[in-house]
Specification:
It is built from 15 helices and 6 strands. It is mainly α and 335 residues long. 52% of the residues lie in helices and 7% in strands. The longest helix has 40 residues. It is globular, with a radius of gyration of 24 Å. α4 crosses α11 and α4 packs across α13. Strands 1-4 form a two-stranded parallel sheet. It has a two-stranded antiparallel ribbon with strand order 2-3.
Length: 335
């Protein structure tokens, strides 16, 4: 027996050819039908729509009752909008995610080791014992069911262990029992688990770990790790990054050190954009992997932001890039 689906969505299925004609009817310029159809088949209309969204026409509409003005998106494109420009933005963003994936892996692994090293010194199974954590942080309650932060972490960790296909997990269970020591357990953690565990640790531990990564303000550092966990999810799920409004806003250290933090302190419009995340990643990569060429590779990628043939021109400024950002990302030619 089939069950009825309660949905107001009424748009019909469309073939790739029909999707292309829909775009053309809305004012998009299609230079090469065959190429455009290939992209629709390979990537999908909905995913690509995130990259032609900035080329849509927006109108100011006045509310009849309140008189307030709001911006309304239309289905039409700005005159002379090119399909290929949206594709180039997609390719740019995909390459950016590849670069971020590389750096986030290094940061995540280093954070795992640092947590295990500090917590494991006093308790081999610290990650399983509530007493190893700050009582206020671990007992925070979230959601309607009132689950504590520690219980939520235990549930997440248990799922990661259960889903792991690694041979070492089976080996330890067979030889040493059901519980993994923390320096082994870290190998099944994801970035979210790292962020959650760090947020529960005692203040001296958080201060020491933040200092290890060059940050004196442990609260700001904890927000950085939480923000990078969000970024890691975007990257892992192939979601748009380049001009996204980010929902996990990082805090800047109270002393505005490192120096670059001053460019973002109090700048809410910049703190909700992707570039501050790139700055955080750059800082941590330089701590974890001194001499890495990652900043230069990212700078070169940003400098190669695709030029558009469309009437509306987009730039990297949509990422929340402050003035003179290059001086931190490129080596000083005088040295």
């Amino acid at each position: 027996m089939s069950s009825a689906v309660n949905s107001r969505y009424d748009r019909p299925w469309k073939s790739f050819e029909e999707q292309l004609e829909l775009l053309r009817s809305r004012g998009m310029r299609i230079e090469d039908d065959a190429s455009a159809l290939t992209w629709l088949r390979r990537v999908g209309y909905y995913r690509l729509s995130a990259y032609w969204y900035p080329f849509r026409v927006f109108r100011h509409v006045q509310d009849a009752e309140t008189g307030s003005i709001r911006t309304q998106r239309t289905d039409e494109f700005v005159q002379d909008t090119s399909f290929s420009d949206a594709v180039e933005l997609y390719v740019f963003d995909r390459r950016l995610r590849v670069l971020l994936s590389d750096a986030l892996e290094r940061i995540e692994v280093s954070l795992r080791v640092e947590l295990a090293y500090r917590l494991g010194k006093s308790d081999t199974f610290a990650h399983l014992h509530a007493g190893a954590f700050h009582p206020t942080f671990r007992d925070r309650r979230f959601g309607g069911d009132g689950e504590t932060a520690f219980d939520a972490w235990q549930r997440r960790y248990g799922g990661l262990v259960a889903r792991s296909k690694e041979d070492f997990v089976k080996h330890y269970h067979e030889r040493h029992g059901p519980d993994l020591p923390i320096w082994v357990a870290i190998e099944v953690w994801d970035f979210g688990a790292v962020s959650q565990l760090l947020a529960m640790t005692r203040v001296p531990d958080q201060e020491a770990i933040a200092k290890r990564f060059g940050i004196a303000d442990w609260k700001a550092f904890s927000s950085w790790v939480r923000a990078l966990s969000y970024l890691r999810n975007l990257v892992a799920h192939h979601s748009r990054v380049w001009n996204r409004n980010m929902v996990s806003e990082p805090k800047m250290p109270s002393a505005h050190t490192p120096d670059w933090c001053a460019d973002f302190a109090g700048q809410k419009d910049l703190l909700s954009k992707p570039f501050v995340y790139l700055e955080i990643v750059r800082h941590l990569v330089e701590v974890v992997c001194p001499g890495s060429q990652w900043p230069q590779r990212v700078a070169a990628h940003l400098a190669a932001f695709p030029a558009q043939t469309s009437q509306r021109k987009l730039t990297v400024s949509a990422m929340g890039v402050p003035i003179c950002w290059e001086r931190r990302w490129l080596p000083d030619p005088g040295k």
